[in-house]
Amino acid sequence: MKTAAVRGFRDILPEESALWQMLVTQARTSFAAYGFSEIIVPILEKTDLFARAIGETTDIVEKEMYTFPDRDESSLTLRPEGTASVIRAYIEHSLHQKEPVSKLFYIGPMFRRERPQKGRYRQFHQIGAEILGRDDPLIDAELLLMLHDFFVALQLEVTLDINSLGCPTCRPGYREQLRAFGESKLAALCEDCHSRLNRNPLRLLDCKKDGCRQATAQAPALADSLCDPCRTHFTSVQERLRQEQVRIVVNPRLVRGLDYYCRTSFEILAEGLGSQNAVCGGGRYDGLVEQLGGPAIPGIGFAIGVERLAMLIQAQNRDFATPPEVFIAPLGAAAEHQAFAVARRLRSSGYRVELESGGRGLKAQMRRADKLAARHVLILGEDELAAGKGTVRDMQTKTDRPMSVDLSLATPDLMNAIRNAGN
Ligand SMILES: [Zn+2]
Ligand SMILES: [Zn+2]
């Protein structure tokens, strides 16, 4: 009997992992340009961390986490997101005492026991970043510019939705306004919204059901209730982005559930992902570090869904394969011996080389080279080798060119000789 992967978990095979490598490399490049460093945190944390960071009454913590008792009965959880671990590490290592501002990014798997569907897995991956130690509008704009640059570098057309969630001064009043508004529309709202009304009226605004969206179309907007400092902050973030020609859409329905979220909140949306079209979400969370037992230090961050990002890139039909530069085709046992040495030398200098067994005929080897999309084939026959000769087939032009195979050549010269054979 075969054993299959766990439901909602999957393998990323080489044809797809090449694309992933490209994404991750681009993220590292784009983020480094803005002064970010990578932080690598554990996949497993104490359950309590997520209950405190994400909220006990959220769907993630109530229904979706992989939580289990360790052998000593303490409760452990496979991380459902990255921010909580980053903040935990930030506090645990007192990073705020070493640097006034920390810019950190992470890349890795997260785990949520949701219903698997297209593009959604129970083990999924995120590329995320956090800035801790600054709360001015300039840094919010910088983070969004970095994201913008990243998506441009990936040649993806995206929309940046932003909103301001206000602060503990101005949001409570708005929350009450919205609650009163919701009460007046009770009959038109769904079951979920009924319970949201008491727990967290802001969530009325992001209900996806048509009835609720219609009922809340005329709801008061948070933008009209912002206090002066929040209004100035929000205006300034938008100005910085427009100054850099970043297209933004102010979306009053962009809200988040928890109290520590404040001010700048954003989502990056892309066509081609169906109804769940957000590929990145994030925002400011000035109360979170303190809530997790650290000092009162402001923060802002985002997480990008790698599976969704990969789907967008796959739709472009770009090729990320890295075919061999040289395919060495030895003919006969003695040639195989020398081919082995040539392959080893080129590879140890970083050239991508594929080597066939000398027992196979030339035709079969050529078919294999074609399949691998090798750029050049170096054919080594025994008689020719004895005379210090080989043949290079240019696989693009399909022409054969003789070359002298001088095995005493330095490796880069040997590679150049292969590339320029016959010239
Ligand atoms: Zn405010
Ligand atoms: Zn609803």
Helix-strand layout with pairing:
Blueprint: H1 14-33, E1 37-38, E2 44-46, H2 47-54, H3 59-64, E3 66-69, E4 75-78, H4 83-92, H5 95-98, E5 102-111, E6 123-132, H6 137-153, E7 159-164, H7 171-184, H8 191-199, H9 210-215, H10 228-243, E8 248-250, E9 262-269, E10 278-284, H11 288-291, E11 299-305, H12 306-314, E12 326-331, H13 333-348, E13 353-355, H14 362-371, E14 376-381, H15 382-386, E15 389-394, E16 399-404, H16 411-419
Parallel strand pairs: 1-5, 7-8, 12-13, 12-14
Antiparallel strand pairs: 2-4, 3-4, 5-6, 6-11, 7-9, 9-10, 10-11, 14-15, 15-16
Helix pairs in contact: 1-6, 1-12, 2-4, 6-10
One zinc ion (ZN) binds at residues 189-190, 192-193, 207, 209, 212.
Report what the structure shows.
The chain is α+β, with helices and mostly antiparallel strands and 423 residues long. The protein has two domains: 246 residues, Bira Bifunctional Protein, Domain 2 (BirA Bifunctional Protein, domain 2, 2-Layer Sandwich), CATH 3.30.930.10; 94 residues, Rossmann fold, CATH 3.40.50. 39% of the residues lie in helices and 22% in strands. It contains 16 helices and 16 strands. The strands form three sheets. An eight-stranded mixed sheet has the order 1-5-6-11-10-9-7-8. Strands 13-12-14-15-16 form a five-stranded mixed sheet, sandwiched between helices. A hairpin with a 5-residue loop joins strand 3 and strand 4. Helix 1 runs antiparallel to helix 6 and helix 6 packs parallel to helix 10. It is elongated and about 90 Å long. It binds zinc ion (2 copies). The site of one zinc ion has 8 residues, from helix 10. The site of one zinc ion (ZN) has 8 residues, from helix 10.
